[in-house]
């Protein structure tokens, strides 16, 4: 009996009877306290064919944990045990924030999806950096920063807010920094002004003494025109790549009843129904980006075929969040095993796939 069977048939039905955010907090606590024990479980993919380089650092596999699961980075010292190739801490904001009122996280089990409007809750950049300073991370990490959830912070103040977070997180031992320009769960929503983005990147570059690769996280709800504008700015400002992408505010082709969706209300949709949107976003950016820029594909990746689809569409590495909630702790390993079998059956390697869309070894 596999761990996936054990989780899906025995543990998940019990967890899914409870409030989603309380389960998340308990899982967090359990991972922190049981870290060394989890390390003894066989949750890591042990095959060889999925090693990949990300900004010069070798990852054991291309499946990362997406931003949002570990907003303050407290799990970075233990999460390596769960078989991820890397993880993205955050979003971290300049100021501490409690987020939106509860309830703000909902399961759509019939769609293997989640809706969240957490609203960038977190301890704030200074506390995160103080808590993580000197800690040893158990896997390669990126860190995701976003503008503080406060509509009063706009224009030049918005630039200042993000640059302040960058000035603090750049001291951590991370491989890259993602600027989250696409959180739908704040009063002001996604970044809409490309001039603010250009000014932010300019200022970040000016203090990026470690030459940390900067990525931009995009929204599947962006217009074609906005993406073109953003891609042009990102080429100009030497952005290292894109995370494609965030959750969507759209509610298309869902099995969940309209009454339930209405009762839940607004928030970002993630999981299976997001796949076709973020795959399309990946394809668009693969065409717009410069050859050396990379793409992290994320959105509805739950199995090896999903992973293969994103890699074929132009992603270099991948991230998951919602499938980890639905499939449990062995999810990354399962995806790796299935992806490896698909690559073998097709007679291709991961480098064959990325050779098609990046020119330098990222
Ligand atoms: C509960 C929750 C919280 C999230 N918080 C963040 C966040 O703070 N910053 C961010 O960039 N993305 C956040 N995301 C988006 C994920 O990183 C990811 O882009 C999205 O969920 C799509 O991937 P998935 O379908 O595998 O979940 C969050 C997602 C969920 C479900």
Explain what this protein looks like in three dimensions.
The protein is of the alpha/beta class and 362 residues long. It has a single domain (48-355), classed as Aldolase class I (TIM Barrel). The chain is 39% helix and 15% strand. It contains twelve helices and 13 strands. Strands 3-4-7-8-9-10-12-13 form an eight-stranded parallel β-barrel, surrounded by four helices. The longest helix is centred in the first third of the chain and has 19 residues, at 20-38. It starts with a helix and ends in a 7-residue tail after the last helix. The mean pLDDT is 93.
Distance between the termini: 39 Å
Largest sheet: number of strands, sense, barrel closure:
8 strands, parallel, barrel
Bound molecules: flavin mononucleotide
Total beta strand runs: 13
CATH superfamily, by name, is Aldolase class I
Radius of gyration: 19 Å
- The residue fraction in helices comes out at 25-40%
| Global structural class | alpha/beta
Q: What is the 3D form?
A: globular
What is the subunit organization of this protein? single chain
Q: In a nutshell, what does this entry contain?
A:
The protein is 39% helix and 15% strand. It is α/β, with parallel strands linked by helices and 362 residues long. The strands form three sheets. It has an eight-stranded parallel beta barrel with strand order 3-4-7-8-9-10-12-13, surrounded by four helices. The protein has a three-stranded antiparallel β-sheet with strand order 5-6-11, with no helix packed on it. It has a two-stranded antiparallel sheet with strand order 1-2.
